[in-house]
From TrEMBL, chain A:
The keyword Transport belongs to this UniProt entry's keyword annotation: yes
Regions that span the bilayer: 12-35, 42-58, 64-85, 97-116, 136-161, 190-212, 224-252, 259-278, 315-334, 346-372, 392-412, 419-436, 448-469, 481-501, 533-556, 568-592, 604-624
Molecular function in Gene Ontology: branched-chain amino acid transmembrane transporter activity
Name under which the protein is recorded: Amino acid/amide ABC transporter membrane protein 1, HAAT family /amino acid/amide ABC transporter membrane protein 2, HAAT family
PANTHER family linked to this entry: ABC TRANSPORTER ATP-BINDING PROTEIN, BRANCHED-CHAIN AMINO ACID TRANSPORT SYSTEM PERMEASE PROTEIN LIVH
GO cellular component: plasma membrane
Origin species: Halopenitus persicus
Automatic annotation (TrEMBL), chain B:
Name the record gives this protein: Amino acid/amide ABC transporter ATP-binding protein 2, HAAT family
Family label: Belongs to the ABC transporter superfamily.
Pfam families: ABC_tran
Source organism: Halopenitus persicus
PANTHER family: ABC TRANSPORTER ATP-BINDING PROTEIN, HIGH-AFFINITY BRANCHED-CHAIN AMINO ACID TRANSPORT ATP-BINDING PROTEIN LIVF
ABC transporter domain location: 11-241
GO MF annotation: an example: branched-chain amino acid transmembrane transporter activity
Coiled-coil regions, chain positions: none
InterPro entries in the cross-refs: AAA+_ATPase, ABC_transporter-like_ATP-bd, ABC_transporter-like_CS, BCAA_Transport_ATP-bd_LivF, P-loop_NTPase
Gene Ontology BP, a term: L-amino acid transport
Alphabetized UniProt keyword annotations: Amino-acid transport, ATP-binding, Nucleotide-binding, Transport
Automatic annotation (TrEMBL), chain C:
Leader sequence residues: none
Top-level taxon in the UniProt lineage: Archaea
Domain Leucine-binding protein: 1-328
Protein name according to UniProt: Amino acid/amide ABC transporter substrate-binding protein, HAAT family
A Pfam family recorded for this sequence: Peripla_BP_6
Coiled coil: none
InterPro entries: BCAA_transport, Leu-bd, Peripla_BP_I
Protein source organism: Halopenitus persicus
The entry's keywords: Signal
Length: 651, 243, 362
């Protein structure tokens, strides 16, 4: 009994910290629609400031840190809002996701630059060291302090929200921003304040948690996903929801860990999925508000019809031609590494193409696409190890498995819209990510190795590693043969998807993207169309994953990591969504730059992050909107920001 | 610039075109509202009534044309600025803050009133007998009629010079429709200027001094309530009403 | 060299740099080393991609690196495919066990060697009632099985009263700590590495676990762990793969080089990086051919010098036979983080499992 009570206290300790992180995240989302991925980094920054403040001042340093670190981070947060997020209001939340993604890279690198990569730790004040007796058992005094401090801070915020004029506006703004403006309140004036205070609270969480665990550069990314789960669980924009969700998740995580370890890492996501399916607005969310937000979210998509048909054909043929001759220059003009990196790019391009189907055409922001890619990769590997080495069979199975899971996930999640869809796909992906760790047959953390892929079927064929061709002076290595296979698959997939998108199915999808309501009135089955697009996309992502597995000869759980889904969205937007070729181009540019920068610059993430931020602010329609072949601006259909009060920035 | 009449209208739209993205909804509409009058804007579903209001409020920026309020162009203003000037919208779906209490719903309007005196929260709420004694209930606990009443009360607290009502009787029971219409008539008798968007033609002509009929983004009729009542053709071809 | 293992990767790199310096300065070697470093984010796929880049674009014949065992294993198979010589930095048994191949030589001490030295010592010196807590991945699982085996083999009365697992990268161990505190355990063996171990011990000390339960972990005496934990590490026990005080001429030379170039003392990762270069270089010298295909045939079983003195990559699995110590973290004379007191030593031959038990066929 006392063990259970102790576990509850353990759960509350971490739960209270979650509350401090989620409260700001939730209110920031509610008031300004910003999904702040960098919130976790601001939390980490709080802990790092505490390290710097606690060390030189000794004992009282902790108390100093508890006041000063949140203030500093609050100022940084306010500056971030003012200078980077402000230009993006009124655009689809996707752009803020992307922007804050860039901020994650930048802040994380700044942390490494200033404090190094090593794990560090600082201690709480001596007065809180040790443990005390409560109800007949001893419990860490510092943990009790965390609980008390966190609850007191949450209580103070709650009081402020409920008993001040500013609080009233913030609560109202979180429920219905538009109506607040209708009443003559300039809500944007409150944004900087909300962002600053939200960041400061997270930093306070970072300080108290830093005294409890070690402080490392990874602490920001590891906390952000549970924080999102809490926000969605409690209801986006609801402070009460963040408090209830944070405590609930803290306690459930802790109890699962001790009593049902098998479900560790799964239970929270399953809970979130269940809540979203039963009550899409979360435990304390407001359903009406969610309805109101639904139609707002149109994405800035590039236009398909930029070049004339013959021009397009020429450009396409040039690209394919270039891809075909690349291997011929190896060992003469450049090393065979070019073929490897281009193979990687082709696989990512295929993956990005799959995302564009749902993101650019159905307007569904999937933050869990790594799930299908990973499923494809694992299915391929398992097939080749246990069933048949045939590449063909393995890839077909990969497509089928990924498509089936996409159907199931789509069936369950397409009913929720906008950001809820993004979160539910993220949750499903996390479930799969955590699942592969659980079983030996999925290779656990080690991954799967040791297949000998073969071209051909039913045992007749050539091993992928052995098939090389030579004709006269030209010889093609086995890696190059596989490369050509990738080129063929990527080109065929692109043509197939393009064919589908000009067919009636594609036009319906586009009309759904423009306005769901209108499409429904016209009589289209919006849900079915979206789901079909999702299944198609899942299958294609599965194919990409399968090809990755064959090309690399192994799979490991990081193919399912959420950062992969995030990077994919970055690539797609970087290239220009809704164009099919844009995201493929984006994948190429991304991989190329990552490869290049990481070789020469230690702080390459900071550079990459800054590039994203600038892109998102100034070139939201992606690379395809700036290419030289777009010089004839007259025929570019700028469907920028179908949003109210649109501001077309650059032209 | 549009026509300049001898006297300045309170609100004047001149050849306003507006819409969502590349879909144009309003194909150049012109209308006026004068101080102290109730003007009804009627039309079928999808005629562009709500788009007109959204453009006036500043949710949408007109692609061409001007919107003058008290003689100055407000078409480039944002929503909050428009509201601060005294144009207050009671939106179609009421948009009551569900998590705020009834009192807080009304009180928040105080924050936005900068230059003009609004109604006192208690006075505004006391206009509606249905809201009495429920001041601390959350907005989400209200019925449709109560929400409408609260939305009007909230608008009054912000001190409107031009009250814009978007379908105030939509979806309400007949008894409640009468009650809401009674309140609007009361506000009219107090001299408040009202722009009323209605699908319910009967209610509209009961309250309005003048009527505009909107169809597919164009004004197809403009005149006094009497002229409108007399024009069978308009009612039949644009509103589907025949007697 | 980033991600969860990032701090360790940079120490390893310092070792490499010193190793390269030594070879390139010395007259004993007829060749020089031209090295390129790449960053693997500790993601397996990136590690593999970077390896590919080093081999294909930079024409490297020898690769070494990766603190992560999963990444080490991935490059094991890559090395075989590309026919390059590979010295992995990961500590999982599998790397020179079931995942071994003739192109992969490990200079690092693996977790099985530590278990053979440290496991039997625990029941003799601490107690017989134990708890094993480990992270749910290959290294943690290795520790769980090898310590159970080694402790029970040395004393049949050893009883593991409970086991618990946490996810890799977990940050909150309070629930396990409460469970251990409420059990009969006299000691706990932690199969955790890096940040997981630091966080666990810190929270355990805060919760007062150290007063009733002895905390042990194969990596408990690592410099990075001691530095991060400060005084909290005092009184805990660990396996020691390397200690700067080791009394060999080679080690003195290594420590001097290290202190000259960087501040402070080298740690086990720097040692492994240094020996990876040095031991391999001796193989190349002996083979009289810089081609990895020749070296991989001559290096197994060849007697080479290392920081520990004479050493060999065993013929049956290409694993270096490094000695292992048991250590105790004691308050340092200068205050601050604890220093290591060496308690017992197993020679390289004793610490390594007999070839018959190694699940590797070369």
């Amino acid at each position: 009994m006392s063990l259970l009570f102790e576990q509850l206290l353990n759960g509350l300790t971490i739960g209270v910290v979650y509350v401090l992180i989620a409260a700001g995240l939730s209110v920031i989302f509610g008031v300004m629609d910003v999904i702040n991925f960098s919130h976790g980094e601001l939390f980490a920054l709080g802990a790092y400031f505490a390290i710097s403040l606690a060390a030189p001042f000794g004992g009282p340093g902790f108390w100093l840190a508890l006041v000063v670190a949140p203030l500093l981070v609050g100022i940084i947060g306010a500056a971030i809002e003012r200078f980077t997020i402000r230009p993006l209001y009124g655009r689809n939340p996707l752009y803020q996701i992307l922007l804050t993604f860039g901020l994650v890279l930048v802040i994380a690198d700044i942390i490494v630059l200033l404090w190094g990569r090593q794990q560090q730790q600082f201690s709480g004040p001596p007065s809180l060291a040790g443990s005390i007796q409560i109800f007949g058992f001893s419990y860490s005094l510092y943990n009790l302090f965390i609980i008390t401090f966190g609850l007191a801070l949450a209580g103070a915020i709650w009081y402020g929200l409920n008993n001040t004029r500013v609080g009233l506006v913030i609560r109202a703004g979180a429920q219905d921003r538009e109506m607040v403006q209708n009443l003559g309140i300039e809500i944007d004036r409150y944004y900087t304040l909300v962002f600053g205070v939200g960041s400061a609270i997270a930093a306070a969480g970072g300080v108290v948690l830093g005294g409890y665990q070690s402080v490392s550069p990874a602490m920001g990314h590891s906390v952000i996903i549970p924080a999102f789960v809490i926000v969605v669980l409690g209801g986006l924009g609801s402070f009460r929801g963040a408090v209830a969700g944070g405590l609930l998740v803290g306690v459930i995580q802790t109890l699962t860990r001790s009593y049902v370890p098998l479900l560790e890492g799964l239970v929270v996501f399953l809970l979130m999925i269940a809540v979203l399916l039963v009550k899409p607005s979360g435990l304390f969310g407001d359903p009406e508000w969610q309805e109101a937000g639904g139609e707002h979210t149109t994405l800035s998509t590039g236009s398909g019809g930029i070049l004339s048909k013959s021009q397009r054909l020429r450009v396409g043929a040039t690209v394919v031609g270039a891809l075909l001759v690349i291997p011929l220059g190896t060992n003469v003009l450049y090393s065979p590494y070019i073929v490897s990196i281009t193979s990687d790019i082709l696989i990512w391009a295929l993956f990005a193409l799959s995302l564009d189907l749902v993101l650019g055409y159905a307007g569904l922001v999937s933050l869990g696409h790594a799930m299908f890619y990973g499923l494809g990769a694992y299915t391929t590997m398992l097939t080749m190890i246990h069933l048949t080495p045939s590449v063909l069979v393995a890839l077909v199975l990969a497509i089928i498995v990924a498509a089936i899971i996409a159907w199931v996930v789509g069936y369950l999640s397409i009913r929720v819209s906008g950001i809820y869809f993004a979160m539910i796909t993220l949750a499903f992906a996390q479930v799969f990510y955590n699942l592969v760790y659980k079983f030996e047959w999925t290779g656990s953390s080690q991954g799967l190795y040791g297949a000998t892929p073969m071209y051909g079927i039913a045992g007749i064929g050539v091993a992928v590693g052995d098939l090389s061709l030579s004709a006269g002076p030209i010889s093609i290595s086995s890696a190059e043969v596989f490369y050509y296979l990738l080129v063929v698959i990527a080109v065929c997939s692109f043509l197939l998807v393009r064919r589908i998108m000009v067919a009636p199915f594609g036009s319906v999808l586009k009309s759904i993207r423009e306005s769901q309501k209108r499409s429904r009135f016209v009589g289209y089955n919006v849900t079915a169309h979206k789901r079909n697009a999702f299944v198609l996309s899942g299958g294609l992502a599965g194919l990409a994953g399968g090809l990755y597995a064959i090309s690399n000869g192994f799979v490991s759980p990081d193919v399912l990591h959420w950062l992969r889904s995030g990077e994919l969205v970055v690539m797609a937007v970087l290239g220009g969504i809704g164009t099919l070729y844009g995201p493929m181009l984006g994948a190429g540019v991304f991989i190329f730059f990552e490869d290049l920068l990481s070789t020469y610059i230690e702080q390459w993430r900071m550079v990459l992050g800054t590039i994203f931020i600038l892109f998102v602010i100034y070139i939201p329609r992606g690379i395809v909107s700036i290419g030289p072949y777009l010089r004839d601006r007259g025929i570019i259909d700028i469907t920028e920001q179908k949003f109210e009060r649109s501001e077309i920035d650059d032209d | 610039m549009g026509s300049s009449n001898s006297h300045t209208h309170l609100l004047e739209l001149d050849d306003v075109r507006s819409g969502y993205g590349e879909t144009e909804v309003l194909n150049g509409i012109s209308m006026t509202v004068d101080e102290g009058e109730v003007v009804a804007l009627i039309g079928r579903n999808g005629a562009g009534k709500t788009t007109t209001l959204r453009t006036i409020m500043g949710h949408l920026v007109p692609t061409t044309g001007t919107i003058n309020y008290r003689g100055s162009d407000i078409s480039q203003r944002d929503v909050a600025k428009t509201a601060q000037q005294g144009i207050t919208l009671v939106p179609e779906d009421r948009q009551i803050f569900p998590g705020l209490s009834i009192r807080e719903n009304a009180k928040i309007s105080e924050v936005g009133t900068t230059h003009n005196e609004g109604w006192d929260v208690d006075d505004a709420l006391s206009l509606f007998a249905n809201l009495e004694g429920k001041e601390n209930r959350p907005g989400s606990a209200l019925s449709g009629g109560e929400q409408q009443m609260l939305a009007i009360a909230r608008a009054l607290v912000s001190g409107p010079e031009l009250l814009v009502l978007d379908e105030p009787t939509e979806g309400l029971a007949p008894k409640i429709v009468d009650e809401v219409a009674g309140i609007i008539a009361d506000l009219k008798s107090r001299g408040l200027t009202i722009l009323l968007v209605e699908q319910n033609v009967e209610t509209a002509i009961e309250l309005a001094d003048r009527v505009y009929v909107l169809d597919r983004g164009e004004i197809v009729f403009e005149g006094t309530t009497e002229e409108f009542t007399a024009d069978e053709n308009i009612k039949e071809s644009y509103l589907g009403i025949s007697e | 060299m980033e991600g969860p293992y990032s701090g360790l990767g940079s120490n390893q790199r310092e070792g490499y740099e010193l190793g390269i310096q030594k070879i390139n300065e010395s007259d004993e070697f007829d060749f020089t080393i031209d090295a390129t470093f790449e960053n693997t984010k500790s993601e397996v796929s990136t590690a593999r991609q970077k390896a590919q880049k080093l081999v294909q674009q930079d024409d490297k014949d020898y690769l070494s690196g990766c603190v992560s065992s999963a990444a080490s294993l991935a490059i094991n198979s890559f090395a075989q495919e590309q026919e390059i010589l590979w010295v992995p930095g990961g500590g999982a048994i599998q790397i020179t066990g079931s995942g071994c191949n003739e192109w992969s030589f490990r200079a690092e001490t693996h977790s099985g060697q530590i278990a053979r030295a440290f496991g039997p010592w625990i029941p003799k010196n601490i107690g017989t009632q134990g708890w094993i807590h480990y992270a749910d991945y290959s290294y943690g699982k290795d520790i769980n099985t090898s310590f159970t085996e080694q402790m029970q083999a040395s004393d049949a009365s050893v009883n593991i009263v409970g086991r618990s697992t946490s996810q890799l990268g977990a940050t909150n161990f309070s629930s396990y700590i409460s469970q251990i505190e409420n059990s009969e355990a006299e000691f706990v063996v932690l199969g955790l590495a890096g940040g997981d171990l630091i966080t666990f011990v810190k929270q355990a000390v805060d919760a007062g676990l150290k007063e009733t339960v002895t905390i042990t972990s194969p990596t408990m005496c690592m410099q990075a762990i001691r530095n991060a934990l400060g005084e909290a590490a005092n009184g805990t026990y660990g396996g020691v793969r390397y200690d700067p005080k080791i009394d060999t001429p080679a080690n003195q030379d290594f420590v001097e080089r290290y202190q000259e170039e960087y501040d402070g003392n080298p740690d086990a990762f720097a040692r492994a990086g240094f020996d990876a270069i040095w031991m391999t270089a001796q193989g190349i010298q002996e083979a009289d051919d810089t081609g990895p295909a020749t070296v991989k045939d001559s290096l197994p079983g060849q007697e080479v010098s290392s920081v520990f003195g004479s050493n060999t990559y065993r013929e049956c699995n290409n694993q270096a036979t490094n000695p292992v110590w048991v250590g105790r973290n004691v308050p340092s004379d200068q205050g601050g983080s604890s220093s290591v007191e060496l308690l017992s030593q197993k020679s390289g031959q004793e610490a390594v499992a007999p070839c018959s038990e190694v699940n590797c066929s070369l």
